[in-house]
Write a structure and sequence with these properties.
The protein has 202 residues and is an alpha+beta fold. The protein has eight helices and six strands, in the order αααββααββαβααβ. The termini are far apart.
C-alpha cells in the first residue's frame, strides 16, 4: 500500500507538495525551499518516491527534475489522506493580485496553466509598488508552497514588445493563459481637435 511511501515527516511533506501542485516538474532545490528540509534529505526522499512510482524523473540540461506520476494507482487515496482541503489557489491569487496599484495588466501562465516550458509564471504590466508586489508574491508562494517566476514590464516596454510581435509576448498569448486584470484602455476615444477658422483682414 502507499503508506510505505510516507512513513516519515519529510516524505509526507514532499508527497503533499506534489499532490497540491501537479502542473509541472520541479528541481530538487525548488522543493527544498518549499518544504524547508535539508537538501540531502530532499534528494533521498525524491529518489525514494520515484522508486516507489509516485514520482517520475527526467533530465534537463544535466539536472534531474521530478513530477507527479499521473498513473500512480493510489493518487486518489493519497490525495484524500494528505490534502485535507484542496488548494483553491485561483480565488486566493485573484484577490491578492487585485490589490496591486498602478498596474494595467496581470497575466498568469507557466505553473498556473500547466505550461512548464514558459520562462515565467506571471506577467505584471505597469508600475506597481515593489514593496507591495513582493509582499503579495510572498503570500501566494507561501499558500501554494512553491517559488514563482514573475516578470514586470512598464506599460511602454510591454506595448513595444506586443507591437514588434516579439516572441515572449507572442508565446504568452498564443499559449493557455489567465488574465487576472486588464485595465488597459484598448479603445481610447479620439481626441477632438478644434480648428479655428482664419479670419482674413480686408
Amino acid at each position: 500500500m502507499f503508506t510505505a511511501l510516507i512513513d516519515t515527516p519529510p516524505r509526507t511533506k514532499i508527497a503533499t507538495f506534489f499532490l497540491s501542485t501537479r502542473a509541472r516538474s520541479f528541481h530538487p532545490e525548488e522543493i527544498r525551499k518549499a518544504v524547508a528540509e535539508p537538501g540531502s534529505m530532499v534528494v533521498s526522499t525524491l529518489r525514494h518516491l520515484a522508486k516507489g512510482g509516485f514520482l517520475k524523473s527526467s533530465e534537463r540540461r544535466g539536472e534531474i527534475y521530478y513530477r507527479l506520476n499521473p498513473r500512480y494507482p493510489y493518487l486518489d487515496e493519497l490525495t484524500g489522506f494528505l490534502v485535507k482541503k484542496p488548494l483553491r489557489f485561483k480565488d486566493m491569487v485573484w484577490l491578492e493580485l487585485e490589490r496591486l496599484n498602478n498596474t494595467n495588466l496581470v497575466v498568469l501562465t507557466g505553473i498556473f496553466t500547466g505550461q512548464g516550458a514558459m520562462p515565467t509564471d506571471m506577467v505584471v504590466v505597469g508600475n506597481p509598488s515593489q514593496v507591495v508586489l513582493k509582499r503579495i508574491i510572498e503570500r501566494i508562494e507561501k499558500e501554494m508552497r512553491f517559488e514563482l517566476n514573475y516578470t514586470v514590464f512598464t506599460n511602454a516596454e510591454f506595448e513595444d514588445r506586443v507591437n514588434m510581435y516579439e516572441r515572449f509576448t507572442r508565446d504568452l498569448f498564443d499559449n493557455p493563459h489567465l488574465i487576472v486584470l486588464d485595465r488597459r484602455n484598448k479603445n481610447p476615444k479620439p481626441k477632438t481637435i478644434q480648428i479655428k477658422p482664419k479670419i482674413s483682414k480686408k
